[in-house]
Amino acid sequence: MHDWHRIFDQNLLVPPHTHRARQPLKESAAFQCVLKWLDGPLIKQAVLEVLSEVGCHLRVSLFDVTYRHFFGRTWKSPARPLEPLCRQPPRIDFSEPFYFHTSLNHPNIVAVVEVVTEGRRRDGTLQALSCGFGILRIFSNNSESPTSAPQDKRLRLYHGSPRALLHPLLQDPIEQNKHMTLIENCSLQYTLKPHPLLEPVFHLLPENLLVSGLQQIPGLLPAHGESGDTLRKPRLQKSLTWYLDNLFFTMYPSLEKFEEELLELVISDHFREAGSPLDSGALEILERRLCVGVHNGLGFVRRPQVVVLVPELEVALTHSASFSRRVGASSKARSGNHTLVSRSRLQLPEMVCQPAFTIVFQLEYVFNSPSGADGNAAAVTSLSNLACMHMVRWAVWSPVLEASSGRVTLPLQGGIQPNPSHCLVYKVPPASMSSEEVKQVESGTVQFQYSLSPEGHLDTPVEHAIRPKAEQRPSRKPPTSPSSLPAPPPRGLTTPQDSPVGPGLSLSQLAASPQSPAQRRSAEASSKPPGSPTLSLAPGEFPLEGRISHLEADLSQTASVPGTSTAEQLQELPFTPVHAPIIVGARTRSSGGKPSRASLALLRSAGFPEILDANKQPAEAVDPTDPVKFNPQKEESDCLQGNEIVLQFLAFSRVSQDDQAAPWPQTVYFTFQFYRFPPETTPRLQLVELDEAGQSSSASLPHLLVLIHKDGSFDAGSPGFQLKYLVGPGFLRPGEQRWFARYLAMQTLQIDIWDGDSLLLVGSAAVQMKHLLRQGRPAVQVSHELEVVATEHEQDTMVVSGDVTRFGCVKPINVHTVVKGRLHLTLANVGHLCERRVGSPSSLPPSRSRVISNDGATGFSGGGLLTPGAPRLKNVVQAQKLADVDSELAALLFTPPWQGTRRPQGAGCEGDAVRRRKLERMRAVRLRERGAEPGRCGPGALAQQSIRAQHARDLQLIAAYRERTKAESIASALSMAITTRHTIRATLGAAEFFEFALRNPDNKQHTVTISIDSTELSLILDGREWRYFKELFGLHTPLEEDMFHPRGSLAPQLFLRPREMVHIPFKFQTFSAGPRASAQASAELRLEKDTDAGSPRKSSTMPTKHAKVLFCAGNGKPLAALCLTVELQPHAVDQVFRFYHPELTFLKKAIRLLPRHTLPGAPVGMPGEDPPVYVRCSDPNVICETQNMGPREPQDVFLKVASGPSPEIKDFFVTIYADRWLATPVQTWQVHLHSLQRVDVSCVTGQRTRLALVLRGMQTVRKVKAFSSHPQELTTDPKGVFVLPPHGVQDLHVGVRPRRAGSRFVHLNLVDVDAHQLVASWLVCLSCRPPLISKAFEITLPAGAGKGANKRITYTNPYPSPRAYRLHSDHPRLLQFKEDAFQVGGGETYTIGLRFASRQKAGEEEILIYINDHEDKNEETFCVKVIYQ
What we know:
Helix content: 10-25%
Largest sheet: 14 strands, mixed
Strand content: 35-45%
Structural class: mainly beta
Number of strands: 67
Radius of gyration: 44 Å
């Protein structure tokens, strides 16, 4: 054991640079280097005079010139004494061979040889001095490795120390650098050649380890002869096979307690790293794995074997009785379920009888990885659940050479001490843990039986432990994660740098898959994101032994994709962007401006229809920049009560954008909603460029909007699109005129602009409607030039300071807005005369008083019990026939007494009864006429007798009917006498406060119970809230504290004295927006309707709600009733948010509110704090909350929404309040959540990445086309229109070649080109890594209207065969190529012609030139820094 520890501690390696590991690697090559002698006067005479016993030795280290990084381990030769030499020049003979093997086959991988002189000072201490160094090139550009024939070479030496190579001024080629100074007449003679005899012992030597032939390598026999060089012709020792059985891992104080502590620290670690707490069920243990391998002190001799461990009780329940008895017998000393056992027998055929050979046990836990737990994600097309592993314990056992079998118990180790896998391990119990029990016991033990004979344990099934078949058994639920920010717990677990995240397939199979060196280095390098601290532990032979190895990583801040399961459950997913909160008001809404005179003249000449008033005169033009003075009384007293609102969409102007902007749409359509009219979707409008546009000096490019007909044609002679809304007394309800004027004065009309072909959102615009207030004028019109603003999400390259997660730093997704264009819009309001309504009570507006009295409801107005209870103007009752009053009685009267027969169909209907009554009258008239003739008296008398009998029956029937309905009619009449009816108008989120004056009509006291049948109508029980509403609405009625007796879930009660009247406060508040149609609709819906574009739009009636309040005495007798009619009015929307999110996941957003009382330029910490903020949401299934982060801290509104299946759109409203009683919202937001199919793509900038999307046919054949929001970066195949067969499956091939590094989103729509319907939609999440830049250039160009410049650069084909290349640039507007593609022979040089365009603005720009091969894979990348001055 001591030999193993000594060798292990002496041979720790420094890993290669992470960027070097990402490059494709070849098979490892072995080399032998012999350092023969050193010529020249290298040792100064002054050194010989100061030091005694002077000696000289050589040190050799591997160095990466590209990244200025030393790696491996420095080899040191034996010292050679310096003796006075008579020969000139002086020579020191070494003749020292050393060996190594490496897979880093690159010319910039060199060996640095340092000459060191050491001696003793006069005080006896040792002193080492660097006398110079040389650079030994292992690989050259001409050949991949040195020739097999040994050749003596001279190594030139330079002044200084090898540390100088770390200076940034020393760039390749180093030998030609001006800062490197040669030592004259000094050189080192050496020989370097391949050594293929070393390949059979690669498993005993780690890569990049420089070893001497005299060093004893565990597992090799001593060399023959006197040289003692064991590596010149290495010979392997004979191996033995060891068998391990009955492995038991004992965890103290119990397995359950240990795993609870482990899960607790994993959750705390995730909270510290990712900044978001995990849910209680978000993390669980999937597998407990044991990796067992043979280690010789330098590295693992063979890849460790993997077995699955299960708790002891589970083994006893699942295995046979004999095995259960054996488990029980071997664990009698252990009590409780705190043991992990292995159900497999381990066979180790690579053991060697040598003290340095040990068996290493590594206990690992596999967790289901929470999204973004360590910054890694799965590959592009992986749709599996992610898993991550952590090593928790390890142990080393050195077998006793003389023993052949026995039982061993070893203590487990952990913590930060070096271990064979060179990764961080879960800490041992003596560290500060939350459990006091764990501190008093050991870190655990492993117990097993070993044997050299395969027949040692016949009852144990032999298995090579490569793919054990074990079910995944999730562990107990972990403790609940902290909801707030706790004090940072002790860091008990750190994600190892070489443990990338993998999908949760078959975990044992993942670990058993072989791992190539390229995969191992790629996973090791990519598992450390930029900016993370580099671990100081050096990797050994296999840094990823026993870990998930074949998975791509380094998708920074990319969330996992929900796995496919049989039940489509919503999986909580912290989706990117992990962003800084969206700031309200930070130019997320477009701004409107006054159009220029040139634009007005240009648009006027296009021939748009003129807006005229009722007298056929042009409407008065209003300047949109003029202030508006709103007088509500003036609007109500206007004689022109009819308002015809006209919207004219005139033109759409393009603004100058960068190269990476989306192409200009050919057709557009608009969606919006005006007042309480239904959501409007305009027809598709063609963009037609003006003829005079080329002569305009404006930077914008105006395009007229022209209506497209059903056949796809358009008439450019009829430009513009006009909509009219007629709002008059016939449309408005009584008293609604005041609300409509307030709507125009305060509301902003939100207009979304969509691409008519791709159905992608171009942007949004907002226009204030306050200029539509006529204020007594016959007609007004106002022209706007609105900015169309789009929101884009891109990842910043810098880290935001003041991280919102309180732990570490995050890479935020920057949410910014881009102006896409300008919309030219004209709004008008034309007044019309309307007939006044008859002044009936039903047409009068409701009372605005907030005190409702029931005094007027008392008493009975007279009339019969069956008369309708409608209000009457005069207290006069006119007699009416009972059959005409009560339809039920009429049907009963005229139903003949059918006895013993079936009633005819429809006999009980009111219409049939009236018809039979008329037939009976006609028959009676005819019988009377016949009775007047001679001899016809009999039938007339019989008829009169029959009529009298019928009347008698009718009277009896009426009497019986009245007796049956008397109680109900009297109760209804009495209820009407005590019922008060009132109508209020309410908007979303606003509280309507009123008081009901209740009077006790009796001369005795009552305890009144107040019952309400609506959840939106509530009784104000808190005196503070009542006082607040009184002050808010200026009500001066009496106020009483502790007025009501609350009874929990029962109705509250009120005590009334005899004849007393009290004011009872009520509040009606609704957060339900009602059913609202989505504003986004396809353009063909409007085309299917034969609706004239200029005809007034029909209104949609806002829903009316009813609520009833009943005041009952203690005996159940009703004292009064209040019937409330609520007419909902349109509400103002201050801001609209539109989010695109993966389907069936959770959207989590933080929206930051601007300080309300912070003045511009005010210093930080000024006195005065913002009031607390309260939020409510219209959808009860949306979690909406805000938290007070402290004084003078910004306040954020947090949203958590479950998205539906694609392409569902969820709409809801969020109201913000500044008062605790939620009286009036200060802001109202509308949120649109689009559910899309998510596709994650990891790619390299400038290089094409290909993937395929599955298209499923619908019911009929469709002609479809794919559209991308960034067509310059994302292309599809088929590119144009193609046929999607019904019920078929077809692949849509997607190619992604990003131009910028970072993370961003690209939208991909599949559209039916005939019906203009959205067939499918994807949200492509790009994670782009920058390429490796091989060369950099810098040029200076004049800014302004210059002519640019022509430049040339050369490129040499590094391959021996001809190759074809393609050229791309990330700024095609600033750089064009003479030829976009070229072909060059093997080893030849090609000149690339460049054309740099000028730029108006001075500054700097870095332009990347991508040189790709015929498969569009990046070969090299050049960076050109252009300085415009």
